[in-house]
């Protein structure tokens, strides 16, 4: 296991999972510009490491994943400053990560916290998790993807209720609504995330990356183009040694041993 120290996050890599822990306990892990830069940097560094097969993002402690963007940092900000420094635009960098990103939501995921969770490919939550987009209470709107990703995850009416009316979703409600894929107890959250990562690690990382890429394309392009995109990615999988090995292993009734090529 190796540990690298950033200022607002901790990063560890063990057992095929690279874990980014948002660590600003005095502010309930609120995300400032530095935290964004460090998370994106760490995700890219983990994406390059051959021993890491999936990236987990979680929050330090038992109360919050992240209670939003940092209100201290934003309170005195002018339009001029937000525009010129392209406030929070750096998140677009996460889209280039090939490996699956799992958000392990361990408490409050409000505002920017909920938005960071939605940037992940899969959200799993502990029973005490709480999702919300309270930005309108502060005279602003979600600014890290909330108005775009929440509607795709839970539909228009529920997304409006969360964003316009401040409705918060418990872990169970977020699960029913389709925002979250698995709910576990708080002490099972990281074991569950690591077991998900281990499972992914036993598969062909190229097939996994292709599947993630195709699913995320569905957000970007119309169905007919998405189907063409998937078809080509599927055909190209037959150029992989891992396709031959995977199907051979099935026929020989043994475990496949993928080589990521
Ligand atoms: C900065 C924050 C913070 C935040 C909490 N804190 N959330 N600091 N930014 N988003 C700080 C508090 O000021 C406090 O510091 C400490 O963390 C503990 O918080 P409390 O409020 O005392 O805890 P509690 O009473 O348990 O309430 C928890 C809470 C509440 C319900 C999560 O903290 C809360 O409502 N936070 C704000 C949630 C929010 O509005 N998020 C959206 C932000 S806007 P002190 O020093 O007093 O101990 C946003 C925009 C996204 O995210 C788009 C950006 C591009």
Q: Using DSSP, what is the number of strands?
A: 11
Number of helices: 11
- Helix and strand pattern: EEEHEEHHEEHEEHHEHEHHHH
Largest sheet: 7 strands, mixed
Ligands and ions found: hexanoyl-coenzyme A
Uncertain ranges: none
Q: Roughly what fraction of the amino acids lie in strands?
A: 15-25%
Helical percent range? Answer: 40-55%
Strand-pairing-aware structural class: alpha/beta
Shape: globular
Distance between the termini: 25 Å
- Rounded to an integer in angstroms, the radius of gyration calculated over CA atoms is 19 Å
Question: Taking all residues together, what is the mean pLDDT?
Answer: 97
Strand order of the largest sheet: 1-2-3-4-6-8-11
Quick overview of this protein structure:
One of its GO terms (molecular function) is hydro-lyase activity. The chain has 261 residues and is an alpha/beta fold.
Describe the structure.
The chain is 44% helix and 18% strand. With 261 residues, it is an alpha/beta fold. The strands form two sheets. It has a seven-stranded mixed sheet, with helices on both faces. A hairpin with a 2-residue loop joins β2 (9-14) and β3. α5 crosses α6 (156-165) and α9 (205-217) packs antiparallel against α10 (223-236). The longest helix has 16 residues, at 33-48. The structure holds hexanoyl-coenzyme A. Hexanoyl-coenzyme A binds next to α2 and β7. It comes from Coccomyxa viridis. GO terms for molecular function: hydro-lyase activity.
């Amino acid at each position: 296991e190796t540990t690298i120290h950033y200022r607002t996050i901790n990063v560890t890599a063990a057992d095929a999972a690279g874990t980014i822990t948002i660590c600003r306990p005095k502010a309930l892990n609120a995300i400032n510009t530095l935290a964004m830069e460090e998370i994106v940097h760490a995700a890219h560094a983990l994406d390059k490491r051959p021993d890491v097969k999936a990236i987990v993002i979680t929050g330090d402690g038992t109360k919050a994943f992240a209670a939003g963007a940092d209100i201290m940092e934003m309170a005195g900000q002018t339009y001029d400053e937000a525009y010129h420094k392209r406030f929070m635009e750096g998140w677009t960098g996460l889209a280039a990560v090939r490996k699956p990103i799992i958000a392990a939501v361990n408490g409050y995921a409000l505002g920017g916290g909920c938005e960071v969770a939605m940037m992940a490919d899969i959200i799993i939550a502990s029973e005490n998790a709480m999702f919300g987009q309270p930005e309108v209470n502060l005279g602003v709107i979600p600014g890290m993807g909330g108005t775009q990703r929440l509607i795709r995850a839970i539909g228009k009416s529920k997304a409006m209720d969360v964003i316009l009316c401040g409705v918060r979703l418990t872990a169970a409600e977020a699960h029913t609504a389709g925002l979250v894929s698995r709910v576990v107890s708080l002490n099972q959250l990281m074991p569950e995330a690591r077991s998900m990562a281990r499972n992914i690690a036993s598969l062909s990382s190229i097939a996994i990356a292709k599947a993630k890429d195709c699913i995320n394309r569905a957000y970007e392009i119309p169905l007919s183009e998405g189907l063409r995109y998937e078809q080509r990615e599927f055909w190209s999988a037959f150029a992989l040694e891992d396709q031959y090995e995977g199907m051979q292993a099935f026929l020989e009734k043994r475990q496949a041993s993928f080589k990521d090529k």
